[in-house]
Amino acid sequence: MKKAIIVGCGRVGSMVAQALAEKGWSVAVIDRNPDAFRRLPEDFPGRKIIGVAIDVEALKAAGIEDADVLLALTNGDNTNAMVAQMARDIFKVPRILARINDPLRAETYYALGIPTVCQTTILSNIILDKILSEGE
Q: How far apart are CA 17 and CA 125, in angstroms?
């Protein structure tokens, strides 16, 4: 069974956690706010860890030592970049991804070997595509 750790149980993190669990993945979610877990369904089969993402003990409690994937999906670019780097360099997690909202930071982290997703860039491209394709 594939094992994923998701850091951040906001709208994005909770949706991804639920989708992976439904596909049979073992999922652990870390969030510093216990109320954030209310976004998960009551029957969510994964683990919920209350803690700070860059805390080694919280990562170990989530099972980082044998995780296949770590997704850093908090609202904080610095937190996401740091936890992704820790997962890659300290724990040798095979696949990582960091949500980075600032396009310049996303490019920088990507150049440093941290795979990123930048919602700002993605949404801007979708908007431009819609506007420009409808006007032709």
A: 26
Q: What is the mean pLDDT of residues 32-50?
A: 97
β-bridge partners, 5 = 28, 70
Domains (range + CATH), the chain: 3-134 (3.40.50.720)
Confidence of residue 135 (pLDDT cuts 50, 70, 90): low
Tokens describing residue 42: 């009551």
Pairing of strands 47-50, 95-99: unpaired
- Global pTM? 0.91
SS3 131: helix
DSSP label of 91:
S
CB atoms closer than 10 angstroms to residue 103:
15
Q: Cα(38)–Cα(112) distance, rounded to whole angstroms? A: 35
- pLDDT tens-digit readout, 43-92: 999 999 999 989 999 999 999 999 999 999 999 999 999 999 999 999 99
Q: How far is C-alpha 15 from the chain's CA centre?
A: 11
